[in-house]
Every structure is written in C-alpha cells, then in structure tokens.
C-alpha cells in the first residue's frame, strides 16, 4: 500500500510523498520528517557536533587513503616490469615534462632549505666530514661521494644548522627518506612522529 501524502512530524504540514526520504522502518515506507525539515535537523546537529564530524571524516579519509595506498603497492609489485616500461616510454615521449617535474622537485627542496631555521657554512660541513673520517656514517663506505643529510628532515621541521647534518652516501640518504635517524651517535637512534 503506497501513500500519496503524509504529515511531517516536525512542521505538521501535509506534504506529497515525494517530499519525504524513503525509510523501510517508517510509516508507509517514508521518514517521519520531510526533506526540508530533515536538512534543518541535520544542520543543527552538525553545528553542535563539528568536532565529532571532523574526526569521523578524518578517520574515513585515512582508512580510504591507506587502503588505496596498499592496493597501489600490491599492484606495483604485481606489475612492476610493465609499469616501469610504461613510465620509461612516457619519459622518452615527454622529455620537457620530465625536466619540468625534476626542476619543480628541486625548487621545492631549495624553498624548504631557504625557509628552514638556521644555516651552516661549507667550512663547518668539511670539518664534520673530516670528523667522520670522510666516510658515510651509515654504511661506512669511503669510496662514494658524501651528501648532506638532515637528521630531522626539513619537511618535518628540522633546522639547517650543522648539528642537524650528517654525512651519508647518496644511497643511504635516499633509503633513509624522511625518517629521523641519527647515525652520528654510537647506537643509531630512530624516532618517528606519532
């Protein structure tokens, strides 16, 4: 049995059935409030529970992000050769775009370095490298060129002072990524922000 109209419990107005959302538990298969009143009730509730909604959305986005990230990781592992081949072909077809993207990354890095707190001189860098016997403090290799690694990465608020710098070879620096690891101490300390 379908109804053609219903009285809204909120505004006490007789309205056509199309003015109500469907609801299996409601009388006549419709909600008790009309669509307009439902929106008003939700807006009032939402304004009173902003933090709850914000947290709920944050959690939902994080779960969605993590599941998508895991799917992409597994897809990459499954189709690694195909993806690398496709990326290489794209790079060969678009050399200007590749250069542009590379420069954009370099520029972001330079902006972070310029806006970071503090600085160090080349003389301080050479003294640090000399103290470390001209070797990578992570792997101990003396044959590879050394790069400046920020113990607390600039992207995580680290400074550009010499006490936040350690000499690493390019491979070790790349594998460290944006983690906070101090190889200058006898036992490397690894700290992550929670």
Q: Could you explain how this protein is built, in words?
A:
There is one protein chain. This protein has 194 residues and is an alpha+beta fold. It has 3 domains: 5-48, no CATH class; 50-115; 122-191, Orthogonal Bundle (DNA Binding (I), subunit A). 49% of the residues lie in helices and 15% in strands. It contains 6 helices and 8 strands; from the N terminus they run ββββαααααββαββ. The chain has helices at 35-48, 50-78, 80-93, 95-115, 122-131, 170-176; strands at residues 5-7, 14-16, 20-22, 30-34, 146-150, 165-169, 180-182, 189-191. The strands form 4 sheets. It has a two-stranded antiparallel ribbon. A two-stranded antiparallel sheet has the order 3-4. The longest helix has 29 residues, at 50-78. It is elongated, with a radius of gyration of 29 Å.
Helices and strands, with pairings:
Blueprint: E1 5-7, E2 14-16, E3 20-22, E4 30-34, H1 35-48, H2 50-78, H3 80-93, H4 95-115, H5 122-131, E5 146-150, E6 165-169, H6 170-176, E7 180-182, E8 189-191
Antiparallel strand pairs: 1-2, 3-4, 5-6, 7-8
In short:
With 194 residues, the protein is an alpha+beta fold. The protein has helices at residues 35-48, 50-78, 80-93, 95-115, 122-131, 170-176; strands at residues 5-7, 14-16, 20-22, 30-34, 146-150, 165-169, 180-182, 189-191.
List the keywords.
194 residues, alpha+beta, DNA Binding (I), subunit A, 3 domains, two-stranded antiparallel ribbon, two-stranded antiparallel sheet, 8 strands, elongated
- Secondary structure: helix percent: 40-55%
Mean pLDDT: 86
Largest sheet: 2 strands, antiparallel
What proportion strand? 15-25%
């Amino acid at each position: 049995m379908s109804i053609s109209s219903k009285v809204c419990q909120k505004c006490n107005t007789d309205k056509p059935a199309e003015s109500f959302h469907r609801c299996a538990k409601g009388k006549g298969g419709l909600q008790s409030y009309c669509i307009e009143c439902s929106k008003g009730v939700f807006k009032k509730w939402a304004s009173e529970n902003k933090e709850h909604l914000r947290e709920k959305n944050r959690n939902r986005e994080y779960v969605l992000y993590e599941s998508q990230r895991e799917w992409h990781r597994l897809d990459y592992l499954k189709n690694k050769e195909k993806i690398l081949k496709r990326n290489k072909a794209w790079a060969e077809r678009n050399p200007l775009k590749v250069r542009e993207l590379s420069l954009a990354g370099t520029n972001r890095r330079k902006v972070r370095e310029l806006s970071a707190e503090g600085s160090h001189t080349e003389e301080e860098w050479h003294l640090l490298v000399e103290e470390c016997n001209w070797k990578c403090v992570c792997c101990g290799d003396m044959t590879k060129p050394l790069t400046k690694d920020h113990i607390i990465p600039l992207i995580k608020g680290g400074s550009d002072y010499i006490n936040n710098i350690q000499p690493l070879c390019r491979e070790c620096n790349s594998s460290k990524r944006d983690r906070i690891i101090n190889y200058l101490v006898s036992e490397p300390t690894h700290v992550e922000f929670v």
